[in-house]
Amino acid sequence: MNALPNVALRQVISADQIQKRVRELGRQISDDYRGQTVIALGILENSFLFMADLVRTLDVPVVCAFIKPTYKQSQKGDSPLLEIFFSQDLAITGKHVLLIEGLVHSGVTSEFLMSDLRARGAASVKLVTLLDRQSARRVPLQPDYFGFLVDDAFLCGYGLGSPEQTGRNLPYLAATT
Q1: 164 assigned to some structural domain
Q2: Distance between CA 70 and CA 85 in Å, rounded?
Q3: N or C: which end of the chain has fewer CB within 10 A?
Q4: How far apart are CA 119 and CA 65, in angstroms?
Q5: Is 15 helix (H, G, I), strand (E, B) or coil?
Q6: What predicted TM-score, i.e. pTM, was given to this entire model?
Q7: What does pLDDT average to over the chain?
Q8: In this structure, is residue 143 part of a structural domain?
Q9: Rounded to an integer, what distance in angstroms lies between the CA atom of residue 45 and that of residue 64?
Q10: What pLDDT does residue 69 have?
């Protein structure tokens, strides 16, 4: 199945590999949060399929919420500044937050959100990502849980893709060739 018109795709991670790893992550996260309620906070758009599958594997109480960061380029001083905002205020004081990403690339957004959630009074904030592209990291960030290390420039499928292209509906992860 090729969901991107006129683009050749190479399967990188199969649907079976993804589901197996999601189950493993679910067991690990459930063990770490045993006896606690978790706020699963999905970062849209890339995390939505991963989050849906992951929360179904958890055997601890889960409250689900989503945020969608928006970015604004502004000029402060001599250099442009990227500002990150997110959509909703959450009642997280004293709660355990599991930030869910589809792909951690530079780490800037994840680091900002984790710091912001801690500043809002979260009891703990941990990061889980399906894909970790450590080679692109711009900040010293290490996810608490990750599915796969990747280096491919652009991946689509399993919820990942770009706003201008189709391909998020693929059951596997693919790279353009």
Answers
A1: yes
A2: 5
A3: C
A4: 18
A5: helix
A6: 0.89
A7: 89
A8: yes
A9: 15
A10: 77
CB atoms within 10 A of CB 125: 21
Asked whether the beta carbons of 100 and 39 are under 8 A apart, the reply is no
Rounded Cα distance, 72 and 49, in Å:
26
Write out the residue range of the structural domain in which residue 127 sits.
Answer: 9-176
Which pLDDT score is estimated for 176? 81
Number of domains in the chain: 1
- In tens, the pLDDT along 56-113 reads 999 999 999 998 877 666 656 555 555 666 556 778 999 999 999 999 999 998 998 9
* CA atoms of 115 and 135, how far apart (whole Å): 22
Half-sphere exposure of residue 107: CA atoms within 13 angstroms, side-chain side? 15
**126: its two tokens:** 């941990």
Q: Is residue 4 part of a domain?
A: no
Q: What is the tens place of the pLDDT at every residue in 24-47?
A: 999 999 999 999 999 999 998 899
For residue 114, the domain's CATH number is: 3.40.50.2020
Element (H, E) at 83: strand 79-85
Residue linked to tokens 């990291």 = 137
